[in-house]
Design brief:
The chain is an alpha/beta fold. The chain is built from eleven helices and nine strands. The structure holds ligand A1D88. This is Enoyl-CoA hydratase.
Length: about 260
């Protein structure tokens, strides 16, 4: 794949796919072609039986500086352009949440606005200790309404409001405290930490990961009683799967499971 492509894809032998935003000179600003390319790769990954985990990263000095403000200006801030842009962005974020494979955001540098939204939409996020995050739309008169959807589902009400209303950059330890990321690690440990996390998850059954990820998001939207009823159904179905039987048998027989959906 050419280095000029907006999205780079690399797949490791252990089932880990690496998706890299690749507009470093524009700090990986999410242009329409960039969003379309990312959507296309994720759609293909969703159907790929040999991919079990996805790592999302940015090339160059930043993870992602949000939507492409020059593209917006070039489109004269038109309503039709905006409708298409924000619909595509929402579809992209939903694609990440509904992807059968877990997604890990590997964050370095800056993650702002739609870049912070990507981090919040990922299932897991590991950041370099010097990474910084913000929803700075409020500073340019464009409130981060779509990033708000993912942000408010990840960090507390007051932390989300603080980020959205001030637009201030927060550092990685603060992002960890807010719950926007799992961990902040020294920059030189970022790749090893992400690789270890990805490998640990990639060793599980692909089916079990997909069942669990879908169940997590669906139950979170339900009232308690319905959530338990739904989760009960998921467990009943899950127990019928060959991988559940194999995992339980392997435990009892004190051996490593051999997944059917490896
Ligand atoms: C609902 C959601 C809304 C949104 O997503 S709105 C977007 C909100 N995003 C922002 O407000 C962030 C804007 N960018 C910045 O504040 C800074 O950049 C950074 C802190 C991310 C990085 O700073 P540094 O490393 O010093 O780079 P640099 O010189 O500012 O930028 C390098 C080149 O990248 C272009 N660029 C940066 N961000 C964007 C962007 N979001 N859209 C379009 N271009 C961008 C610049 O203009 C410049 O370009 P040139 O070299 O031609 O001067």
């Amino acid at each position: 794949m050419s280095q000029e492509e907006p999205i780079l894809l690399r797949q490791d032998a252990d089932g880990v796919a690496h998706l890299t935003l690749n507009r470093p000179r524009a700090r990986n600003a999410l242009s329409r072609p960039m969003i379309a390319a990312l959507q296309k790769e994720l759609d293909a990954i969703a159907a790929a039986p040999d991919i079990r985990v996805v790592v999302l990263a940015g090339n160059g000095p930043a993870f992602c500086a949000g939507h492409d403000l020059k593209e917006m200006q070039g489109a004269d801030y038109g309503r039709a352009y905006a409708e298409e842009l924000f619909a595509a962005c929402a579809t992209l974020m939903e694609r990440i949440v509904h992807l059968p494979q877990p997604v890990i955001a590997r964050v370095h540098g800056i993650a702002t606005a739609a870049g912070a939204q990507l981090v919040a939409s990922a299932d897991l996020a590991i950041a370099a200790a010097d990474a910084r995050f913000a929803t700075p739309g409020v500073n340019i008169g464009l409130f981060c309404s779509t990033p708000m959807v993912a942000l408010s589902r990840n960090v507390s009400h007051k932390h989300a409001m603080e980020m959205l209303l001030t637009g201030d950059l927060i550092d990685a330890p603060t992002a960890e405290r807010f719950g926007l990321i799992n961990r902040a690690v020294p920059a030189e440990e970022l790749d090893a930490t992400v690789a270890a996390l990805a490998a640990k998850i990639a060793a599980k059954s692909r089916l079990t990961l997909a069942v669990g990820k879908e169940a997590f998001y669906r139950q979170a939207e339900l009232p308690l009683e319905q959530a338990y009823a739904y989760a009960k159904g998921v467990m009943v179905d899950n127990l019928q799967a060959k991988d559940a039987r194999e995992g339980i048998n392997a435990f009892i027989e004190k051996r490593v499971p051999v997944w059917c959906h490896a």
